[in-house]
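Field notebook, page 551. I keep forgetting to write these up properly, so this time I am using the form the group agreed on. The chain and the ligand, CU-O-CU linkage, are recorded exactly as supplied. Prediction of the bound pose follows.
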Amino acid sequence: AKTRHFKWDVEYIHWSPDGKESVVMGINGQFPGPTIRAKAGDTVAVHLTNKLHTEGVVIHWHGIRQIGTPWADGTAAISQCAINPGETFLYRFKVDKAGTYFYHGHYGMQRSAGLYGSLIVEVGDGEKEPFHYDGEFNLLLSDWWHKGSHEQEVDLSSNPLRWIGEPQTLLINGRGQYNCSLAAQFSKPPLPQCKLRGGEQYAPQILRVRPNKIYRLRIASTTALASLNLAIGGHKMVVVEADGNYVQPFSVQDMDIYSGESYSILFKTDQDPTKNYWISINVRGREPKTPQGLTLLNYIPNSASKFPTLPPPIAPLWNDYNHSKSFSNKIFALMGSPKPPPQNHRRIILLNTQNKIDGYTKWAINNVSLVLPTTPYLGSIRYGINAFDTKPPPDNFPRDYDVLKQAPNSNSTYGNGVYMLKFNTTIDIILQNANALAKDVSEIHPWHLHGHDFWVLGYGEGKFSEKDVKKFNLKNPPLRNTAVIFPFGWTALRFVTDNPGVWAFHCHIEPHLHMGMGVIFAEGVHLVKKIPKEALACGLTGKMFMSNKHN
Ligand code: C2O
Ligand code: CU
């Protein structure tokens, strides 16, 4: 195993992700940021300099558990202070498990600003994947707005709420097309054909393949909002990995992917080799106002400018939730994967609601809308400063709450309390969806846990009840770091508190998190050693270090 060093400058750059020039948050002058490739067991050391001039920055390594390095998790106000303009911070952490991951900004709405990239961990030396392939590609999916992230932030914090609306463009590896289509003859509503020469920043990244081979496609979604469905025209896909964990291979025509999730699929280039094929992504779960994202699967030696004669794959209807549920319910752990403990020590039920606070529209969990404190929790708890609400948030919601109806009193409160979890115990989380503020509306929320993988024990409809426990899958539940709750449904998760630190658990839809949709878990913080001072040089921990200096 080795240490891989990277020197990164984060700065605003002019870029054209979809043909319209914008200001994006780039790394080393590029968008998306550079891809990190490492091997399991390696140490990654990113020397990150903030060249943003007037705002702080942090980067979160999504899916990396940060075992023993909770201060490198890259969550502002949780694991560290935002890195000030001009300053350099060293993210040094071990990538212990092979898989498809990504990284992104975790301060304000910096993910929406374009601060993201791929992180790919290959199997360690002498190790083998449990499947074979001849070549691989990587697709990082995202969504793009023409309105800048700061304006979006102000819109979302306004009373009345100004909703940011649907994205203008879906991006594949940071590339999409606005106001034109690669498949104009099939586009609804009609769009002109894109006139591309191939060198443009918004030209699609074409996948060049040889006939009769097996390819691995790594796919990760870092969308701010959109849930997606991906398909390869004419080709079946076999899902083999989810969130850095192997799954029992299963075959599909199309797959859903929610923000925060990653997958690997295998496909065989067994179709007519004289043709090229579409790869498409479409919005799910929200009435789509965004054209599909496209790129080409180009069979060598065909010309890449030879467009497929068939239309791009037809996506399932945006509100065909049964289709989505059937995909989620096909995912099981590969035989031999770690099994969950048979019993839990504590169960926390988290009700997801949309609320008002003094007229402002917010999201709340058990009636608390998360507002982060000024001193990062990690230092705050480690040094006993406790600069947050010391009353922990509730483990449940009122029994008589009707999740199928609008809340009788939709007001909630702001809070920044912490779920203090006993070290080395088994925790069950039931994510309970509910009706939002509007009548008969309930949305999809992909929940992501930092510092851990969890087992997904099951999904259900309506309100979770004690008898649902019997239906939990304890035999081969998949290990993941992100799991979705479907409209008006619940999702059950289990994990073990074996990683000392403070960990965010939140909806991965960035505007939802911004509006308070998250909670904080802390476990074994007294066991955390040697937190680098640079991580905590703000708020009350910053003051503490200052006064110690004078002693
Ligand atoms: Cu990828 Cu806390 O998020
Ligand atoms: Cu959400």
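OBSERVATIONS:
- The two ends are 41 Å apart (CA to CA).
- The chain has a mean pLDDT of 97.
FOLLOW-UP: compare against the apo run.
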